[in-house]
Amino acid sequence: MVKFSKELEAQLIPEWKDAFVNYWQLKKHVKKIKLRRKRRQPPPDLNDDFGRSIFDPIRFISRISTKLFGSNNNTEIIQVKSKSMEDGSDEVVYQTELVQLFSEEDEVRVFFEMLDEELNKVNQFYKTKESEFVERGEILNKQLQILLELKQIINDRRRRKPNTGILSRSWSSCARSSDFSERPAELKDGSTEISQTDEVIAALERNGVSFMNSASGRAKTKKGKPKMAMRIDSPATTATCTISAVTSMIWEDLVNNPKKEGHGDFINTKKIQCAEKMIRSAFVELYKGLGLLRTYSSLNMVAFTKILKKFDKVANQQASASYLKAVKRSHFISSDKAVRLMDEVESIFTKRFANNDRKKAMKFLRPNQQKDSHMVTFLVGLFTGCFVSLFSVYVMLAHMSGIFSSSTDTAYMETVYPVFSVFTLLSLHLFLYGCNLFMWKNTRINYNFIFEFAPSTALKYRDAFLICTTFMTCVVGAMVIHLLLRAGGFSPTHVDIIPGILLLIFIALLVCPFNIFYRPTRYCFLRVIRNIICSPFYKVLMVDFFMADQLTSQIPLLRHLESTACYFLAGSFKTHEYATCKNGRLYRQLAYVISFLPYYWRAMQVKHNGVPRIYSVFVEAEKHVQLIMFSSIQFQVCKKMV
């Protein structure tokens, strides 16, 4: 049976770890009480032991009856009182008082003080998160209502003729809370059009939508017509500020700058579809957060129950019942706002985003977690064994053919090794990344949240090890085949093309559009590389920073990749003139650029991401500039030595 402490550690939410009950500290204090009781117990007196008595069964029965029936007559040994804060807030603080004296009174008092602190901490955190989720739910409902009204406006505009008015439409939701009424479908002059726009804006303002420019303060054009330039003023501090920004863009394009052509409708439709996806994602995140809050409540309740049972067992008292009554009356157990909000989100999501199909809605709200397959572990072991065997065969063949001896021609080492070392360094990088994933998982670091990976498609450490071992098995297998064919007397022109074929296979697999061999991970890698190369023009994420730091240590890989590309593109594998690339001026210049290019990308990332913190950005950028200069000097020194 798994201990509850391990079960709690496995199930607690990493981001809320400090807000959970400190079960381990409470457990240590219970052990202190137990040790204190053992020290105070007198040693058994052996002189009083005269054997068994005929009254022993009667004493045994009396003890059992006392435990079973006498406990109901005992008074409570503790009293848990709830007090309101003096600052006038509705926060309730729990405080325990000892009614009955204990032999270890000081330790017991400290234990219940710690228990009260944990209970108050859990209550306060639950209230904060609950109010935050309720506020997010209200904001999302308002945004959803605005989105539905926008879709109704688009549908009404499509039904009208091109010469009809722009803002004549019915407002079903606004009519309930305002005196805005529907206008005729056709407008004959600009004044009627302007008045209708004002009425639409006034109706929106009465429904909680505020505009930066009012109807009275609007600027006018040269012809005397008012400029239709208004933007919804959404607060940037809310949890759905991004959705508000998108909604404001839609209203700016729809109400402020309407077009009578069909192209304007197309733009509005695309923006509405984008806003609808964002609102749907926000509802999914809200539902997940509410589920985590319920898990938080249930785990803490079990923790209080377990620790109180341990205390009863150690202190030989019945204090758990009285304290658990107070715990059940506390806010994090008695409040049902989170449950009701979850039901409301389910109903709204099912109705608005799943066409009343609950099964389809639950696929978004409660996606099935992918279970770790034993096949992945089996394949990792299989390919690891194949790699070790093939590498042993390659070492023996290389020793027998005398490749590593000084008398042998260095063409093999200068041409084949740079090609295969590209895959070797990449596989080593994947292996170390898999080790990082393993350590992050064991230390409960939520790397998917940090790097903004999708949990359903994120790479796990077993998958990283599988990719690494697969790469190395294929590379060493190709090296063995290449060495066997070379020793068998085959034409070097045909034999030396094997590394190029292997490189083409891996490139084709990397850009393969079919959903095989971790397509989300492959495309994420390509997207990150694109963001790094074009770092001044793309938003820099945490995964981009991480990958750019890795690239600064992969300069040998980039140089070997350059020599491999030159070897095959220049046709050196046919002519066997291996000095063609090294003596070329363009090759040397590219090698010079490659030596400091990763540091340049990293410096551009820091410059692009650090506008608010100028000083630290300057220091970071200066460090990367120094690394660029050092890399250039190192390249020049190595070039002269060669």
Strand order of the largest sheet: 1-2
Number of helices: 25
| Portion in strands | under 5%
Separation, N- and C-terminal Cα atoms: 66 Å
Helix content: 55-70%
Biggest sheet architecture: 2 strands, antiparallel
Give unreliable regions as ranges. Answer: 46-50, 70-74, 163-194, 206-242, 256-267, 611-618
Radius of gyration: 36 Å
Estimate the mean pLDDT confidence: 74
Number of strands: 2
Q: Decide which structural class fits the backbone.
A: mainly alpha
Instruction: Tell the overall outline.
Output: extended
Which sequence of SSEs, written as H and E, runs from N to C?
HHHEEHHHHHHHHHHHHHHHHHHHHHH
Give the oligomeric state of the chains in this entry, treating copies of one chain as homo and distinct chains as hetero. Answer: single chain
